[in-house]
């Protein structure tokens, strides 16, 4: 099966490539878990990043769901990286742009490579109907965050 492309409602200029395994699982109502990719490109060096990414995907599979690692390669948002695409992102490392939701259009328009943050992962996953995702962590302290922080568990 070939990957399918999806246009988001209200975002017709962004085509998203969805891996066939992910597309099939979604159409059958099976569990799919989106995985952010900044942890791969910016979180650790190669080859540990690739090994960790494969281990996390394996844990998702072991628990009965289909993993869908999300990134942008050559200007194309991809939901469900292939093994080759995962390795490419891992070897790119920090040369892949750390891509938040606000950066998606820029990375796509310039044909760039982007590793998705939590916000971009949530956005792209939601576009294709994935409602659960995993992250390596939510980090970053924003200016005056000590006055505005709200954590809900």
Automatic annotation (TrEMBL):
SUPFAM superfamilies on file: Indigoidine synthase A-like
Gene3D superfamilies per UniProt: Indigoidine synthase domain
Gene Ontology molecular functions: hydrolase activity, acting on glycosyl bonds; metal ion binding; pseudouridylate synthase activity
Keywords: Glycosidase, Hydrolase, Lyase, Manganese, Metal-binding
InterPro entries, per the entry: Indigdn_synthA-like, PsuG
Top-rank lineage group of the source organism: Eukaryota
PANTHER family with a match to the protein in the record: CARBOHYDRATE KINASE PFKB DOMAIN-CONTAINING PROTEIN, ZGC:136858
The protein's name in its UniProt record: Indigoidine synthase A-like protein
Organism: Medicago truncatula (Barrel medic)
């Amino acid at each position: 099966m070939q990957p399918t492309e999806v246009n988001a409602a209200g975002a017709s200029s962004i085509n998203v490539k969805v891996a066939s395994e992910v597309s099939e699982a979604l159409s059958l109502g099976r569990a799919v878990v989106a995985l952010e990719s900044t942890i791969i490109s910016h979180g650790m060096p190669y080859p540990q990043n690739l090994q960790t990414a494969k281990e996390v995907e394996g844990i998702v599979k072991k628990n009965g769901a289909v993993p869908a690692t999300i990134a942008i390669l050559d200007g194309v948002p991809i939901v469900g990286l292939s093994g080759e695409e995962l390795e490419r992102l891992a070897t790119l490392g920090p040369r892949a742009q750390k891509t938040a939701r606000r950066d998606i259009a820029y990375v796509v328009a310039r044909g760039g490579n982007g590793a998705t943050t939590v916000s971009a992962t949530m956005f792209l996953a939601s576009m294709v109907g994935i409602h659960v995702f995993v992250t390596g962590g939510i980090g970053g302290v924003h200016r005056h965050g000590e006055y505005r922080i709200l954590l809900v568990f």
